[in-house]
Automatic annotation (TrEMBL):
This is Ca(2+)/H(+) antiporter. The gene is cax. It comes from Deinococcus arboris. Keywords: Antiport, Calcium, Calcium transport, Ion transport, Membrane, Transmembrane, Transmembrane helix, Transport. GO terms for molecular function: calcium:proton antiporter activity. It is a multi-pass membrane protein. Its main location: membrane.
Length: 379
């Protein structure tokens, strides 16, 4: 399988970094390629452990470890003090899960199933979409507050504004985590029948691994992702410089896709089998988890480790993109059915946003950066 063949980049990346002392670009590329299959194995191991843990604890494990690879990558970048890249990765994960992951799943389902309309649970998707929209509003409040404070009518000093931004972000982060915990109670305990997927859907593994094996893969995969994330974060700045791109662009596109690639694969897999409920749940669930858990956790972790990070996004375009994504997803999923063309539209919006982020990011002019890309890869 192609995914497993990428595991070869695990020893290659370590060899390039610690033995050959290769240029950072090659370390970055091989670390990225190594993280992709590791994240997939982490997802599989979580599912197998969940089978042994029972439906409630298993559901808790699945939703909690769903974004573990992305969280680990972000923590190492945060420890390097690069908060702008971390925030870019958060934005990229939200728009990537909702547009790229869900869009690929819808397109795959449409073509494999003969172009027919694909149906899914409208009530379930509607609740997830509403929760995504309300969560996004909470997540973007610190940025809206910061932009308001810069208006002449308020004229807050930069130092005072930064302090207020940090305090507000911590408060919002705590609220988001509380909402996340209450959401677990809602979806796994009090209203689990609403969010339950039928047994025919086959979300869990057909033949579960022994518990010891699953736990070993889970712990080992986490450790290896941490190791590769350290290589990746260490090579990020030099790679961006060599490619003529900004670290912001790499964070919002490359790192976001790498951290969530396993979720995209899972969504496409279930969509191809006609299990659109699962595909939609994976796409929307992963998006909500980034906003409700990953982002606030990074704010709290940064404050505890002496690397404070607020939730004020680097560009107004990020703010607009996140809110627009929530509205687009609500529009696409509200009727409980979809076609491959709607998936194409989601992918088109994602590519348009990626292009916009490419041109608006700071650093070298984008055309010059793009022109240098091939020369950098060819040495």
């Amino acid at each position: 399988m192609l995914m497993n063949s990428l595991l070869a980049f695990l020893p290659i990346s370590l060899l390039l970094n610690y033995v050959v002392h290769a240029p950072p670009l090659w370390v970055f590329v091989t670390a990225v390629l190594a993280i992709v299959p590791l994240a997939d194995w982490l997802r599989k191991a979580t599912e197998h452990v969940a089978v042994h843990a029972g439906p409630t604890i298993g559901g808790l494990l699945n939703v909690t470890f769903g974004n573990m690879a992305e969280l680990i990558i972000a923590i190492f970048i945060l420890l390097d003090g690069n908060t702008q890249v971390v925030k870019a990765q958060i934005t990229g994960s939200i728009i990537g899960n909702a547009l790229l992951g869900l869009g690929l799943a819808i397109v795959a389902a449409g073509f494999v199933r003969g172009g027919t309309r694909q149906k899914f649970n409208a009530a379930n998707a509607g609740q997830l979409s509403a929760m995504l929209f309300l969560t996004v509003i909470m997540l973007t409040l610190p940025a809206i507050f910061d932009y308001t404070e810069q208006l002449p009518a308020f004229a807050a000093g930069s130092e005072a504004r930064a302090n207020l931004d940090e305090r507000l972000s911590i408060g919002v982060a705590i609220l988001l985590i509380v909402v996340y915990l209450l959401n677990l109670v809602y979806t796994l305990v009090t209203h689990k029948d609403v969010f339950a997927i039928s047994e025919e859907a086959g979300h869990g593994p057909e033949k579960p691994w022994p518990l010891a094996t699953a736990l070993g893969v889970l712990l080992g995969g986490t450790a290896l992702i941490a190791l590769e994330s350290e290589l990746l974060s260490g090579a990020l700045e030099a790679t961006a410089s060599q490619l003529g791109l900004s670290e912001f662009f790499l964070g919002i596109i490359v790192l976001a896709v790498v951290g969530n690639f396993a979720e995209y694969i899972a969504a496409v897999y279930f969509a191809r089998r006609g299990q659109m409920d699962l595909a939609v749940n994976i796409g929307l669930g992963a998006t909500i988890q980034v906003a409700l858990l990953t982002a606030p956790l990074l704010v709290i972790i940064g404050a505890l480790l002496g690397h404070p990070m607020n939730l004020v996004f680097s560009s107004p375009l990020e703010l607009i993109a996140i809110i627009a994504v929530a509205l687009i997803v609500t529009s696409v999923t509200k009727d409980g059915e979809t076609t491959w063309f709607e998936g194409v539209l989601l992918l088109a919006v994602y590519l348009a946003l990626a292009l916009a982020f490419f041109f608006v990011t700071p650093g070298e002019a984008a055309p010059e950066g793009a022109a240098r890309l091939w020369s950098a890869l060819l040495g």
